[in-house]
Design brief:
- There is one protein chain.
- With 349 residues, the protein is of the alpha/beta class.
- The chain contains eleven helices and 21 strands.
- 26% of the residues lie in helices and 28% in strands.
- The strands form four sheets. The chain has an eight-stranded mixed sheet, covered by helices on one side. It has a seven-stranded mixed sheet with strand order 8-9-10-11-12-13-14. Strands 20-18-19-21 form a four-stranded mixed sheet.
- Helix 3 packs across helix 5 and helix 5 packs parallel to helix 6.
- The two termini are 20 Å apart.
- It binds zinc ion (2 copies).
- One zinc ion binds next to helix 4.
Length: 349
Amino acid sequence: MSKKRKKKKKNKSKMPFITKLTFFVAALISAFAVYNSQGEVYPFEVHYIDVDQADSALIIADGKTMLIDGGEIGYGQRVVDYLEEVGVEKLDVMIATHPHSDHIGGLPYVLEHVEVAEAYISPFVHTSQTYEELLDGLMEKNVATNVPETGSTFSLGGAQCTFVSGGAGFDDCNDASLVLRITYGTTSWLFTGDAEVPAEQAMLASGLELDSTVLKVGHHGSETSSSVEFLNAVTPEIAVISCGKDNSYGHPHDIILDRLRNVTTYRTDRLGSVVLITDGAVVSYLDEGERRTVSNPFDGIGLYIGNYNGDKFHKVGCEYMPAFQNMDFYFTRDSVLAAGYDPCGACRP
Ligand SMILES: [Zn+2]
Ligand SMILES: [Zn+2]
């Protein structure tokens, strides 16, 4: 026996099984919390969900949640699955930027499956069936629904949200997009929907603050949006383009990519869902492995039995299991190894 192991084994204390079981249950309950792979929770996260040639963004601010748009008809399930994957069970706010189906198509499904407290919709009225379904869904689920005015604000956790366009006074559905600017700490985030140049001009004329750290590029990177004047006012450090791979519109258009040539740009058609996080000062892109997941409390859990009078640990049922009073219970292989036991050669736990 090595000196090291001897030392470790000295630390083993006999703990009654029932006490261990209590710890185990407590550990299980806490394991249901949502962590990233490093075990931390980011204060502010934006997930530009990959919904192909459409828009959908999830914002999590101090645990409060908001969904801006929900992809095309038929993509609601993808959005709901994504919410589940990252542990979002309830939406504090839902925003339908404008009634085009690539923005609201998935929202009726989301309403069916996820509790939504409050919604903001554009004043633009559409006659499509999808739009009717959205309104019906909001009504059926008793979601407090507002048509915001330009300049109106609300908060989401510690984030301040301002509608820099309420979308009123436009004949064009895209221009009627609700445009939301969020500030969190010293960072700012602009969500433009499909607002085109006329809406951009109205925003510039409003005098509202447009300068933003991160810009969700208008209308999937179409040349109908992102005018030079608008980009000069926003001066983004980071741009995100939500569009489909090889989409028939040719989005993002080259002229827009050229205007963004000095801006770090992330595209959902190339990267899939794009996740950005901040502590309120620095914005970072999260690689796949660093992203939020719901930890599975049963991952890697089993029952391993050490022997207070020996060096080996066993699986339940092994013929070399110690007598009950000498059983030392562990629920993960890592923990039984860390306690200094070696696997039994017979049951190979
Ligand atoms: Zn669109
Ligand atoms: Zn649109």
